[in-house]
Amino acid sequence: MPSWKINLTIHQDIIPIVEEIMGTLDEDNPPTLCDFEIIEDDQIRLLEAYFITKPDIDLLKHHLLDVVPQIAEALTTLSLHEIEEKDWVSESQKFLQPVDSGLFFVYGSHDKDKIPENRINLLVEAGQAFGTGQHETTHGCLLAIGDLAEELVDTKTPKIVLDLGCGSGLLALAMSKIWPITIMASDIDPIATETTIENALANQIPLVDTDSGKAGIAAFTSDGFSDPKLSQAGPYDVIVANILAKPLQEMAGDIVAHLSEKGTLILSGLLDVQEDAVCQAYKKQGMTLVKRYIRGNWHSLLLRRQNVK
To answer: What is the rounded distance in angstroms from the CA atom of residue 168 to the CA atom of residue 191?
Structure first.
């Protein structure tokens, strides 16, 4: 079945009452509403309303004029559009190009004919959780993990690592492909946890219990380190946290407390202008910046404890 979209350009002050009136057109299936800035610092907005049944435009105009008479001129911009039913996941996949990120090649099933032989290949479909490798933060983390893998190849394999705020689980998948150990993957969003499990299975990576000591991914939902399974499994030799600058700063103490003495942190989800504040938060915890990975305006950081060889 098709869906329907109404466009209307109006003053921002009357958006709430217009949205309320639009909601009365189909009270059993209220529309999804959003508005956009047209000109920076202007007060005129583009309002979009999405309906699953065709709305009665004449009735809408009548109600609007009755309640908000001053909207008469704005109603000349009102338009109704039918939206063709599509498989939007498949449509989005058409625009997701493979990501060649150093050691790793991330692809969707629609690009399976492009898989190279000289990369670690990771299958990740477009889905509800963040992390298909397209975003600069994920790309930066993959580069950092690749560098870390090369650095440790002649020394010691980590005993246990953590992908904190795992999203799609892509970074956990990447680490599981280079280290035959337990990879802990946690996220506050249960959809992310489910997506990580699905992606692990799609890449033939075993799902393991947190205390099994076996190679594979242990994925579960947790708000930070609140789940005892997460805190008790450490200390971690590698913690990757691709979240946002503010939670990275707020969680600095907790994250470092669960890192082993010679462990490595990979932090991402921060803009270039936020790097100093994030680094200061971790410097207070005894960490120092070793390397940064710059992708556009986004930075990914590799840190270790100060004065630890």
So the answer is: 9
Cα–Cα distance measured from residue 22 to residue 30, given in angstroms and rounded to the nearest whole number: 8
Relative to beta strand 160-164, strand 182-187 is parallel
| Nearest partner of 140 among 269, 13, 244, judged by Cα | 269
CATH class of 91-305: alpha beta
Instruction: Give the N- to C-terminal CA distance of the chain in Å, as an integer.
Output: 63
CATH number assigned to the domain covering 3-83: 3.30.70
Delimiting residues of CATH 3.30.70 domain(s) in the chain = 3-83
pTM across the whole model: 0.69
Residue where the block lists tokens 């680094």: 279
Q: Where exactly does CATH 3.40.50.150 map onto the chain? A: 91-305
pLDDT of the chain, 309 residues: tens digit per residue: 678 999 999 999 999 999 999 989 888 888 988 888 877 667 888 999 999 899 999 999 999 999 999 999 999 999 999 987 665 555 555 545 667 777 898 888 777 777 888 888 888 876 544 444 557 888 899 999 999 998 887 677 899 999 999 988 999 999 999 999 999 999 999 989 999 999 999 999 999 998 888 999 999 999 999 999 898 998 999 999 999 899 999 999 999 999 999 999 999 999 999 999 999 999 999 999 999 999 888 999 999 998 766
3-state secondary structure 187-205: ECCHHHHHHHHHHHHHCCC
